[in-house]
Design goal:
The chain has a 6-stranded parallel beta sheet with strand order 3-2-1-4-5-6, with helices on both faces. The chain has a 6-stranded parallel beta sheet with strand order 11-10-9-12-13-14. The chain has 2 domains: 204 residues, NAD(P)-binding Rossmann-like Domain (Rossmann fold), CATH 3.40.50; 222 residues, Rossmann fold. Helix 5 crosses helix 6, helix 11 packs across helix 12 and helix 11 packs across helix 13. Helix content is 46%, strand content 13%. It is built from 20 helices and 14 strands. Bound molecules: nicotinamide-adenine-dinucleotide. The site of nicotinamide-adenine-dinucleotide has 26 residues, from helix 2 and helix 6. It is an enzyme of class 1 (oxidoreductase). This is UDP-glucose 6-dehydrogenase.
């Protein structure tokens, strides 16, 4: 028989943002006793009150279920976490450093240091944050240094692949689990902490610490490269009159290539892909192997060029002069089903249009409050219809279902001029053109 600890380890989740809140709730739903800890008292208060402090479909219901079960609690005390947990999951942020491409590890270092300094028993501290390769080994040494005498603390890594908008589903039923461990004991603890997920037949890769850190950044690099690949093809299409949406469709039928992440458009953003590929490039430079991932700098550059190209398309529709033109910007979140505006291409384009003199009115179904906080200089409308009233150009920047479902005739009745830039290849060009709209999309010819 395994000792009780390995049967049903008590879990803590340190950092209850997008990743941590989802992880804490999901693990409690799976039957574990979970304590979530965050330094931000507002976040802790919200979660205790049953309120998810961000938009994530399905998570509020699961939070209510988990709180009602009595298995999920939240606190701001690291000491309480250290006393409670057999397995600690560290889910704090690793944003891009100001003025550099490298990851800012202040929060991860701080969380590991503080947690370990309070641990007086046997425990496993598992990093889930996305970090530069080599961080876990450094943190393992740090933990050994700061843990009080008598404590027996080991470090492991368990990279997270959840997608915002599908976070609960991805946590309960992931494509795979990766455990980076330094001992059979750590592997056993992690197996115990994910037993219901593993029992479903979820593939598991057990690896060393650096490999497990690399899996995450390699996966994000691949996805970013796939998006920038098709957007590079869009640039070529623009120079030749070819149509990138037909090209992407034809490529996607090749099962070796596949259609996912091959959608041309405004490109990627958010709190992960951009900063992760930059941090990877910076880390490879530190390791003296920057050459190996130099293409990621180009992936980043291709991605950012799509934003200016979208602004140019809007300008082309108003004869090159954006000054004083009314532009309805549909979307602010970095992708649909999220209110996350970190490095959001949509908000960046709205800002660039305004800088070029346009009068920009933004509407997003969920991200308005977040957008208004970081871009107070933009105008915001309370609805899709309010946003497009009297517009000279409509530009679709985030492919919310609501925008896909909009009727071109109904929208046409509200705007000043029927002109639209489809920054996400999300609309039916034929329907818009049939309704008298001048329709433009990145990488597609002016007329069909
Ligand atoms: P986030 O900013 O939403 O959450 C981080 C949380 O950590 C915040 O609530 C913050 O208050 C808290 N925190 C900071 N320092 C702390 C400390 N010392 N003790 C306790 N709490 C502390 O970030 P996120 O989007 O959840 O991302 C977290 C990590 O997960 C990042 O490394 C990210 O790259 C990675 N990741 C995120 C996603 C995603 O979809 N958001 C997916 C996979 C991996």
């Amino acid at each position: 028989d395994l000792p009780p600890v390995a049967q049903q380890p008590r879990l803590t989740v340190i950092g209850t943002g997008y990743l941590g809140a989802t992880h804490a709730v999901s693990m409690a739903v799976l039957g574990y006793e979970v304590l979530g800890v965050d330094v931000d008292p507002a976040k802790v208060d919200a979660l205790v009150a049953g309120r998810v402090p961000f938009h994530e479909p399905g998570l509020p219901e699961k939070l209510a279920e988990a709180l009602a079960s009595g298995r999920l609690r939240f606190s701001s005390s690291m000491q309480e976490a250290a006393e409670f947990g057999d397995v600690h999951f560290v889910c704090v942020g690793t944003p891009q450093q100001r003025g550099s491409n490298a990851a800012d590890l202040t929060y991860v270092d701080g969380a590991f240091r503080e947690l370990a300094s309070h641990i007086t028993r046997r425990a496993l501290v598992v990093g889930k944050s996305t970090v530069p390769v080599g961080t876990a080994a450094r943190l393992a040494a740090l933990v050994r240094e700061v843990a009080p005498a008598g404590a027996d603390v080991e470090v492991a890594w368990n990279p997270e692949f959840l997608r915002e908008g599908y976070a609960v589903q991805d946590t309960l039923h992931p494509d795979r689990l990766v455990f980076g461990v330094e001992s059979p004991w750590a592997e056993a603890q992690l197996r115990a902490a994910f037993r219901p997920v593993l029992d479903e037949g979820t593939p598991l890769v057990v690896a060393d610490l650096p490999t497990s850190e690399l899996v995450k950044v390699a996966a994000n690099s691949f996805l970013a490269t796939k998006i920038s690949f098709i957007n590079a093809m869009a640039e070529i299409c623009e120079a030749t009159g070819a149509d990138v949406s037909l090209l992407a469709s034809a490529l996607s039928h090749d099962t070796r290539i596949g259609g996912r992440f091959l959608k041309p458009g405004l490109g990627f953003g958010g709190g992960c892909l951009p900063k992760d590929i930059r941090a990877f490039s910076a880390r490879a430079d530190e390791l003296g192997v920057g050459q190996a991932v130099r293409f990621l700098d180009e992936v980043d550059a291709i991605n950012l060029r799509r934003r200016q190209r979208t602004v140019d398309l809007v300008a082309e529709l108003v004869d090159g002069d954006l000054a004083g033109k009314k532009v309805a910007a549909l979307g602010a979140a970095f992708k649909p089903n999220s209110d996350d505006i970190r490095d959001a291409p949509a908000l960046d384009v709205a800002r660039m249009l305004r800088d070029a003199g346009a009068i920009v009115t933004v509407y997003d179904p969920e991200a308005m409050a977040n957008a208004a906080r970081v871009r107070p200089e933009l105008r915001y409308a309370p609805s899709l219809t309010a946003a497009v009233v009297d517009a000279d150009v409509v530009v679709l920047l985030t492919e919310w279902q609501q925008f896909r479902d909009a009727d071109p005739e109904d929208l046409g009745a509200l705007v000043h001029t029927r002109r639209i830039v489809d920054g996400r290849h999300a609309l039916d060009a034929d329907r818009y053109r049939a309704a008298g709209w001048e329709y433009r999309a990145l990488g597609r010819p002016v007329a069909p």
